[in-house]
Structures are given as C-alpha cells and as structure tokens.
C-alpha cells in the first residue's frame, strides 16, 4: 500500500526534514508508521492539553461551557444523581466540549487560510457553530430530564 505523507511545508527546512522521515516541529507524521512509544503518547497528551488552554484562553463561549460544567457537576452531587444519570450528564458535557473544540479548530484554520470575508469560509464557520448549538441544546434537554425530577418532586 501507499504510505501517507504530509506535503504542506509550514516552516523553514520542512521539506528536508520530511525527506529524512522526521515529523518536525509541527508534530505531523510523515509516513504514519512510527513505532509505538510511551513518550510519544505522553507528548500527545501535552499537545491535547495545549489545545484545551487555547480553547479556554481564546474562546468566550468556552468560559460559559466551563461554568455550565461546574454547575452541572455541583448540582449532580447535591441531587445525588444515579450512576446512569451521571453517564448521561458526562456524555452531554463531553459532546458540548468536543463540538466547541472542533468549532474553534475550524475557525482557526479558516482564519489562517484567509482573514478576508469569503462566503464558503463563512458558511463553514456557520455550520461548525451550529454543531455547538445543537450539542448545547441536547445537553440542556438532558440536564432537564435528569434534574427536573430531583428538583421538583411532588
């Protein structure tokens, strides 16, 4: 089979490093067949956490998600929700965070391509924003289904 390669040089010397089989400073694999390494897995977590910092530092909506996450966790503890209810809440929280991260990644990439107003880029950003909205509305519905019986017992 054909090996995957990255061909978009983004830093001085990228072509030479890619030819040598090194992924370079932008952390992209050149052949997809690197041997397993615990150190590389650890580095993957470092990169992922750096992405979380980018999200929290640069996106005001992420602050709202953080506050909502904290509220839901506290409310879940106070209401002593069941294990299954925790599963539903955790999935809802994770879905919203994942969609916000993808939306932010799309926005950052689109802005890297062009800062000009471009219709297709605008539509892509709108669709990504809708993904966050849909996830947030689903999370609100799950929150209501979980917490309503705990808060408004008859």
Lay out the secondary structure.
Elements: H1 14-20, H2 38-58, H3 60-79, H4 83-113, H5 119-151
Helix pairs in contact: 2-3, 3-4, 3-5, 4-5
Structural notes for this entry:
The chain is globular, with a radius of gyration of 21 Å. It is mainly α and about 150 residues long. Mean pLDDT is about 85; it is low at about 1-15 and about 20-25. The N and C termini lie far apart (about 65 Å). Helix content is about 75%, strand content about 0%. The longest helix has about 35 residues, at about 120-150.
- In N-to-C order, the SSE pattern is HHHHH
Poorly predicted runs are: 2-14, 20-24
Number of strands: 0
The largest sheet is: none
Q: Report, as a whole number of angstroms, the end-to-end distance.
A: 65 Å
Class from secondary-structure proportions: mainly alpha
Helical segment count: 5
Whole-angstrom Rg:
21 Å
The general outline is globular
Residues in helices, as a percent range: over 70%
Instruction: Tell me the strand percentage band.
Output: under 5%
Average of per-residue pLDDT values:
84
